[in-house]
């Protein structure tokens, strides 16, 4: 069973996908974290964020992996937990540039498809239903206003001890939306057969319940 959840930054994809995967006993794969890890590899190796060949070469010596620790998915580069490092403002500001590199996307998509082919999976990102898993059993596209997404990210940063101005976060999200929707490789867009859910005025529990209903309905009809 393959479930694809797409949508813009901070629409709630990762949060609800993790909860639903845990509730249903599925594997959860945060593709955005993979591209953030690629961006961190570039930073750690003093590479320009558009240096495709350099980043690809660095990835051969910097293996990205996931581990579940106390029901929390952690991201590792080699043996180091980088779950916090990949969420800093600098990585957030540059991940769109790295994720737009065609060979980087090709390498990550190969890994994503392999994992999806071996498990019941919930995968979230920008192009899961359109490119990574075009034949997914369920496709969901989450949307929310820029203001509500910025507030969510602001509170998330605050909880992690990262101080950033709300207005700056709104601008960053709007800029990220534009980059994601206008990139040449796998732009952010809703798959024709995806369910669209607006999370602007919904709580996490409400979104989880709504998406779970959609998934279970399609699972029953499969």
UniProtKB/TrEMBL annotation:
EC top class, as a word: transferase
Domain of life where this protein originates: Bacteria
GO molecular function, one term: ATP binding
Keywords annotated in UniProt: ATP-binding, Cytoplasm, Kinase, Nucleotide-binding, Transferase
Gene behind the chain: cmk
PANTHER family registered for this protein in UniProt: CYTIDYLATE KINASE (PTHR21299:SF2), CYTIDYLATE KINASE/PANTOATE-BETA-ALANINE LIGASE (PTHR21299)
Keyword Transferase: yes
Family: Belongs to the cytidylate kinase family. Type 1 subfamily.
E.C. numbers: 2.7.4.25
Catalytic activities: dCMP + ATP = dCDP + ADP; CMP + ATP = CDP + ADP
GO cellular component: cytosol
Protein name: Cytidylate kinase
Cellular location(s): Cytoplasm
Pfam families, alphabetized: Cytidylate_kin
Protein's UniProt keywords contain Transferase: yes
Binding residue positions for ATP: 7-15
Main location: cytoplasm
GO BP term, example: nucleobase-containing small molecule interconversion
Species of the source: Lactobacillus iners DSM 13335
Residue ranges occupied by any Cytidylate kinase domain in the UniProt entry: 3-216
InterPro entries in alphabetical order: Cytidylate_kin, Cytidylate_kinase_dom, P-loop_NTPase
